[in-house]
Amino acid sequence: MVLKLAGQDYLRAPHGVLSAALAAGPMAETNIYVFGRVSLVLSYAGITEFLKDADRFTVDARKAGHSSAFGMRFLPKSMQILAENLLTLDEPDHTRLRRLSDAPFRKLSIDALRPRIEAQCAALLADMERSGNRDLVTGLCRPLPLQVICDLLGLSGHRREALTKVFAGMSGGSTIEILRLLMKTGWVQDEFRKEFADVRAAPRAGLITELVHAQADGGRMSEDELIAMVFILFAAGHETTTHFISSTVWTLLNERGLRDLVAAMDEDAQATAVDEFMRFCGPVQFTKPRYPREDTEFLGVALRRGKPVCAALAAGNLDPAAFNAPLTLDLARRPNRHLGWGWGPHLCLGLHLAKAECEIAVRQLLAKWPGVQIDGDPMKLPWSRRQGVRGLVALPLTLKS
Ligand code: HEM
After folding, report:
1. pLDDT value at 172 more than 60
2. H or E element in which residue 106 lies
3. Which helix (H) or strand (E) is 286 found in, with range?
4. I need a labelling partner for 168 at 20 to 30 A (CA). Which of 43, 148, 185, 368 fits?
């Protein structure tokens, strides 16, 4: 079965398409720009097995017969450096880099950041009120994760502004926007190199300073790995979070009674609800590809060496074999071992951060404007065209107290 996991019809209402595909079997195929036809693992059990099986499936296409880590024939030099990132490395390099970067992303570190995120969120909502901007995507969902990741990295001044502008330009996820970003990767890397030189000369708070000094300390990280790490944290750290906040707010304003229910919850119950929003409308539709190291068979399907295979997280999250009444949004669902953050060694590094941002954004929005509504027909709003993620381009609201 060849699935179409793109287009406005799918993005507006993906659940029916995904459930029907799951009912037809645990594997399917889809078409992805650049990669062409890829295999998809759909079932929950299949996905968890697949994402843990690094012996059979590598994230580094070079180990499965391709000439570049991303599985593409031609890669410009500036992109080749980015291949040395967490998501394209297997053990032991993956564990080494993950250990160097994970401390600021642990739950306790993120809990300590919450007051700062709350202050940033409150300031952005106040700006929306002052300026009359009613679009939650440009007013909050996009700037909040960008500000938070810049703080965490320790980026400041004019460089922070310039880099934020480049990454924020991806709002629609169109091919032109992505090409524009790709064309800027050389410039972005130069900026990061200048930042490294600055913090070598004058260390300051933030993950960039820590990584630069970890690099100096016995060469545990090469300069290219450092660039790739900061790039992936910047890129992975904001777009998905932007989409998560907008989809969560869209979903909760779209179903009668949900807004008031969530507003009346205590913080623990809201945190549980956010987990369920991630299961039900998480932004990542499918993972980055993995590649069979050799010809193999998985869930009864023959897979050729080097053929890209992705885990359809959004489908696994609706698998009736793993979740009771999967098409029902159950805000008190527990346990909720959903796949929204991936699974296995490449489980999202920033999950506690993204969860905190979404919880804070929803809580503050509903507290400030308890009567908030979507302005216009929710079914006519535009969704980002970038493949593999689901998130709104704009979310116009009526901000009623
Ligand atoms: C709602 C927001 C987010 C979602 C839904 C999300 C989802 C994911 C998923 C599904 C993966 C695994 C991809 C795969 O296996 O191919 C992943 C990996 C990753 N995420 Fe997130 N992410 C989010 C936010 C963040 C944030 C805020 C950061 C950091 C600032 C971050 C950093 C990373 C990194 C570094 C990886 C690679 C981990 C590794 O390979 O070890 N993510 N994310």
Report:
1. no
2. none
3. none
4. 368
pTM: 0.95
Question: What domains are there in the chain, each with its CATH number?
Answer: 2-398 (1.10.630.10)
pLDDT of residue 167 exceeding 90, the answer is no
The separation between CA 37 and the C-alpha centre of its own chain, rounded to angstroms, equals: 23
Q: Under a CB-based contact definition with an 8 Å cutoff, are residues 45 and 322 in contact?
A: yes
Q: Check: CB of residue 327 under 8 Å from CB of residue 350.
A: no
What's the CA-to-centroid distance between 341 and ligand 1, angstroms? 6
Pocket of ligand 1 (CB under 6 A): 86-87, 98, 149, 232-233, 236-237, 240-241, 244, 282-284, 287-288, 313, 340-342, 346, 348-350, 353-354
Distance between Cα 369 and ligand 1 center (Å) = 31
Work out the number of other CB atoms within 10 angstroms of the CB of residue 266. Answer: 7
Residue nearest to atom 41 of ligand 1 (CA): 346
Q: What is the pLDDT of residues 262-287, one digit of tens each?
A: 999 999 999 999 999 999 999 999 99
Helical segments of 202-286, H only: 207-216, 223-254, 258-263, 267-281
**pLDDT of amino acid 125:** 98
Give pLDDT, residue 208.
93
Banded pLDDT at 215 (limits 50, 70, 90):
low
Section 182-189 average pLDDT: 82
Kindly write down the DSSP assignment for every residue of 64-76, as one continuous string.
Answer: GT-SSTTS-S---
> Which pairs count as long-range contacts for 197-200, CB under 8 Å and 24+ apart, including other chains?
199/154
Q: φ, ψ for residue 182 (rounded to 5)?
A: -60, -40
Q: Identify which has the larger pLDDT, 27 or 68.
A: 27
150 to 112, 156, 168, 207, 248: CA distances (angstroms) = 16, 7, 13, 10, 23
What are the pLDDT digits (tens) for 323-334? 999 999 999 999
Report, in angstroms and rounded to the nearest whole number, the Rg of the chain calculated over CA atoms: 21
Using CA atoms, how far apart are residues 298 and 31, in angstroms rounded to an integer?
19
Q: What angle do CA 187, 193, 198 make, to 5 degrees?
A: 130
Q: Which helix (H) or strand (E) holds 396?
A: none
Task: Name the 3-class secondary structure at 40.
Answer: strand
